[in-house]
Amino acid sequence: MDEQSGRLVTMCWEQIERKQLWRTRSKSEIQLHANLRYRETVDPIIQKFKKSEQQSEVYRRTIHKLWADPIEKIIPSELSPSKWSYHLLRHLAKLCNLVDRQKGLQLIHHAIKNRST
């Protein structure tokens, strides 16, 4: 399951709980959990997404610490993705551990240029 799907499932489940939408089909939230086999179906997706989000935050802090700015300030907006994925943040954090900011930005620009051609 990818990040977008995990985010969507998590947001949907939060709405079901917040607005008590389960009341239209079930007598209780516990019954809804049982009917959907929540522990086997929904919960693993939500837990995986939450873990991914937590790890993404660790990578963001690593980048900020090693390159002295948040990633959104380091990478120009025209080169930034609309959403910083877990995998991209992980790779950038690894890059931060290997080279300084200037060299890292040179490598990033070079990689983008090569991909565009």
Supply database-style keywords.
71% helix, mainly alpha, 117 residues, single chain, 6 helices
Task: Describe this entry's structure for a reader.
There is one protein chain. This protein has six helices and no strands. With 117 residues, the chain is mostly helical.
User: In angstroms, what is the radius of gyration?
Assistant: 19 Å
The proportion of strand residues reads under 5%
Number of helices: 6
How would you sum up the global shape?
elongated
Low-confidence stretches: none
In round numbers, the mean pLDDT is 93
Number of strands: 0
Q: What series of H and E elements makes up the topology?
A: HHHHHH
Helix/strand/pairing category:
mainly alpha
How helical, in percent, are the residues? over 70%
For the biggest sheet, the summary is:
none
